[in-house]
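Fold this: Sucrose-phosphate synthase
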Amino acid sequence: MAGNEWINGYLEAILDSGGGGGIEDSKAAAAAAVNLRERGHFNPTQYFVEEVVTGVDETDLHRTWIKVVATRNSRERSSRLENMCWRIWHLARKKKQLEWEELQRFTKRRWEREQGRRDATEDMSEDLSEGEKGDLVGEMMSTETPKKKFQRNLSNLEVWSDDKKEKKLYIVLISLHGLVRGEQMELGRDSDTGGQVKYVVELSRALARMPGVYRVDLLTRQISCPEVDWSYGEPTEMLTLGPGDADPGEAGESSGAYIIRIPFGPTDQYLRKELLWPHIQEFVDGALAHILNMSKVLGEQIGGGQPVWPYVIHGHYADAGDSAALLSGALDVPMVLTGHSLGRNKLEQLLKQGRQSKEDINSTYRIMRRIEAEELSLDAAELVVTSTKQEIEEQWGLYDGFDVKLEKVLRARARRGVNCHGRYMPRMVVIPPGMDFSNVEVQEENSEVDGEFAALIGGSDGSSPKALPAMWSDVMRFLSNPHKPIILALSRPDPKKNITTLVKAFGECRPLRELANLTLIMGNRDDIDEMSAGNASVLTTVLKLVDKYDLYGQVAFPKHHKQSDVPDIYRLAAKTKGVFINPALVEPFGLTLIEAAAHGLPIVATKNGGPVDIHRALNNGLLVDPHDQQAIADALLKLVSEKNLWYECRKNGWKNIHLFSWPEHCRTYLTRVAACRMRHPQWQTDTPGDELQVKESLNDSLKDVQDMSLRLSVDGDKSSLNGSLDLSAIASGDRGVQDQVQRVLSKIQKGEPAAAAGGGGDHGKKLLDGAASKYPVLRRRRKLVVIALDCYDDKGEPEKKMLQFIQEIMKAIRLDPQNARVSGFALSTAMPISKTVEFLNSGKIQVNEFDALICSSGSEVYYPGTYTEEDGKILPDPDYASHIEYRWVCEGLKKTIWKLCAPEGEKSPIEEDRKSSNSHCVSYLVKDLSKAKKVDDLRQKLRMRGLRCHPMYCRNSTRLQVIPLLASRAQALRYLFVRWRLNVANMYVFLGESGDTDYEEMIAGAHKTVIMKGVVLKGSEELLRTNASLLRDDILPRESPLVTHLNEGANADVIANALKQVSKARH
C-alpha cells in the first residue's frame, strides 16, 4: 500500500463526516480544525474538509488530470491524484443525493397526476350511462391514439386555401428575448439570439404572404443601448408588404409583416432572458396599447369603421407565452403557444447530470418562474404548436396543465357532445417548422456531377478555383482527395450531439475511409482553451481521435463559418454525392436534416426524437441507434457505396420537401387556428359620431363654466345655473354636478326640450336617466385613480381607517381643479358589491364618487349611476361578465375544491360563504388557517384535473375565492382600457405594503403605483406559495420609476406631491 496512504485519509473522512453526513457539518469541522499543513505535514482528512468540499468544481477535473500526467515529481503527482480522488468521491456522493431527491419528487408527482386523472374521470362519469362509462375507461387505459383516427380528424378540417382572400386577418406574434431584426440577423451572438429569432421572423413573412392575412405584427423588446446596433431601438421595421407584393394596387396602407418593438424594463440595457421576467407586465400593457391603436387603424381601413381585433395572439417561448396569455385574456381573443424549449424538460436533464441542486439551477436559469409561465400559457392556450410527437408525449407531458390520457378522454367526450364539467386540455398539434428554400440551388438529377465538380475544383484547364465559394476552399484544404463523397455533420461541439462516436465509427471502418471524407462543421472557435468545458472536451477528443486513427487528409474541421456559408457547405457535399448525418443522442426536431434534403443530400439520423417524423415524411435515408457505432458506419457505407439507393433517397427528399416549406407550414397553421373557438370583444367600443361631438363641446363648455365659477368665487357668490348647478362644485371637481352638465349640454346639442335639462318634470328626469345609462362617465376620463388598499381585521371585515385614506386620496386629487376635471376614481376590492356599498355608506362616501367598482377580487365590474335597476340597485357590467366566462363552470369546480380541501374522514378547513359568492366567484370562509392549502399547491391540483381558474386568498386570509381564469383585479384594469380606451399608463394604483394573494399582480405594469406604508398591517401573501424558489424578484422589479412609496400618515398634500413626481416617469 506504499504511496496510497491517502486511502486511510479517505476512510477517516467518511467516518468523521458521519458516514455520509451533510456538507455543512464538514464545513463546520473545517472551520474548527487547526491547519495541520502549517505544522509541516499533510493530513488528507483536513485537506478534504478544508479544500475539496468547500471549493469543488467538476468542470476543471479534466485540466487537473492533464496537469497530473505532465507532472514529473512523484510526490506532487500523488498529491494531485489524491485531490482528484476526493473531488470524484464528493461528486459521486452529491450526485447520488440529488438522484434520490429527484426520484422522490418524481414518485410523488406521478402519484398526484394519477390521483388527479382518477378524480377527473370519476366526476365526469356521473352523467354517463354504464356503456359509456366502459368506453371512458377503455379510452383512459389506451396509451396511443390510432393513426387512422388522427387522420380522420384532420380530414374533417377545412384546409386553408386561396378562396380566403376576403378575410383580411390581423395576426400578432410575440418573441421577447434576444436581438430581433429582419436583415443580417446576429444568430449565435449569444444564447438568446438563435434559431427562434430566425423562425419567428420567417414565420411573420410567410404568414403575411398567405391569402386572407392582411397584417402580421411581431412584437419584441425595444433596446436602445451602445452594446447593440441602433436598429434594435427602432420602434417599427417592415418585413414584407404581404400578398399584394405582385400588385401594389392591392396592398393596403398598413398591410404586410412588421417588427414592432415595445419598450419595457430598462431600455438602455440589453438583458438576457432570465432577467426579463419582472418586466413582463409592463410589456403586456405596452403591447395592449399598440394592438388597440392598430385595431382602430385597421378598422378604418378594412373594417368599415369597426375595430379589427387580432385573429390570434401567438406566444413563442415561455416569456412570450406568459405575455400572450395576459393579452389574450384582456382582449378575449384566441391564444396559440409554441414552447421552442421547455423548462421542465431542461430541469429534468440538469438534475440527471447531478452537478447542480434544484436551488442552484433556479438561481442560474430562473427555471421555476419559467415553468410557471409555461403552466399559465397552457391554461390560456387554445392550441399548442409542436415540432414532433415526441415533444408532446415526453416534454409537454411533464406539465401539470397537460395530461395526454386525460386530453384524449376530454376530446372523446367533446365528440359525443357530453359535458366535460369545465375541464379542458389545450389541443396539441404537430406542425414542423418551415424552411426558406430561396437559397437552394436545385441540381438536375441527370447532371454529370463528377465532371462538373472536377471542373469546379480545377480540372485540366485550371481556370475555376477563383469561382469556388470561400467555404469550399476552407473545407478542401484539409482533404488530400476532395473528389471523394463528403460525409457532413453540422452541429455545436456539444456532448449530446455525439460527434465523437461518429469519428470513431469513421475511423474504425476502413472501407468507409477509403470511399469517403468526413467534414465536421462544429460552430466557430478561436481558441479551444477559451471554450466552455463541455465544448472544449468534445473538440479535444475529436483531435485525439483524428490522430489515433491517422485521419489526416480525410477529416475536415474548419474553425469558422458564417450563416450565409451554410448553403455552400450543403452544396459541396451534394456535388460529391455525399451524405448528411445527425448522430445526436436525442434530437428534438432536426432542422438541418430538412436543409440537407433540400440540397439533395440523403440522410443518416438518430432514431431518437424528431428525425423519426422527418424520415417518415421524406423517406430519404436511414435511421440508426446513436449508441451503436457499427450501425452508424454501416448506414453511411450503404448510402455512399450504393449509388442507386443514393439517387432514390435524393429523389424522395426533393419529392416531399414541400411538406416542410413555409407556405405548407402556414397553410396547416391557419387551418388549425381556424378550427379553434374563435372569440373577440362583442361590444361596440366606439360611440356614434354625434356623441363624440357632444364630448368635445362639453370639454369646452365645462372649461368656460369653470372659469366663470372662479371669477364669481372671488366675491364669495356661489351662483347657480337654473338654480341647480353649483359652479364652485364643478370647479372643485364634483363629479355628480359635472355629469348633470354633461346631460344638459347633450340634450341641448340634440335639440331636445329644455325641460329635459334641469329639473323640469318627471319626463325630463327619465330622459336624463336613459342618456346617462348608455355609457359610463369613465369613458370621458383621461386619468383613473384606483384605490386597492386591502385593510381588513382578523375577521375579514374592512377597517375604518381605510375610509380615511380613501378620503385623503380623493382630496389630494381635487387640490388641482384642472387635474380633478379629467380624473376619475375606482375602488378595487375583494369584497362583494353589497359589502362594498355598505362600507362606503358607513363613512358617508357616496358610491357615485367612483366611476368604477371592481368587486369580488375582479370577478365583477360596476359603474355607479350607469347600470342600475329602478330601485337604485347597481348592476354588474354585462360585457365584463361575458368577457371572463371563458372556461368557467362553477358547479364542477365547487365539488373539486371541496374534495381537495377536505379529504375523506377529515374536517374541512373551509365552508362556503354564500354572501360573498356570485356567478363568477366561489367564496369560502377559512376556518382553520393552518390546514389551508397554498395557492400554488391548489392551482397545481386543479390543473391536473383539467380545471382552469384563478384561486386566491383575501381579506386578511379569512376568505378563499376562486374566480375565472381571465378575471383578476389587474386584468379588470386592462379590460377598462380595452372597453373604454382609458390607457393603463394613465392609471394610478394605490396599494399597501402587503395585501391579498393577487397583490403582486397589481404592482407591476405600465401604470403608476403608489405604495402607502403603515396602512395594511397584515395581508394574505403567506398563503401564496409553497415553493420558496419562485422568488419575488422574478415577479417584480426591485426598482422601478413607476413605483413610489409614501410614509405612514401621509396627508392630501403629500399624496398630491407624490402623484406629481411619479407622473413624470416614462410610460
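The domain at 468-670 is CATH 3.40.50.2000 (Rossmann fold). The mean pLDDT is 80.
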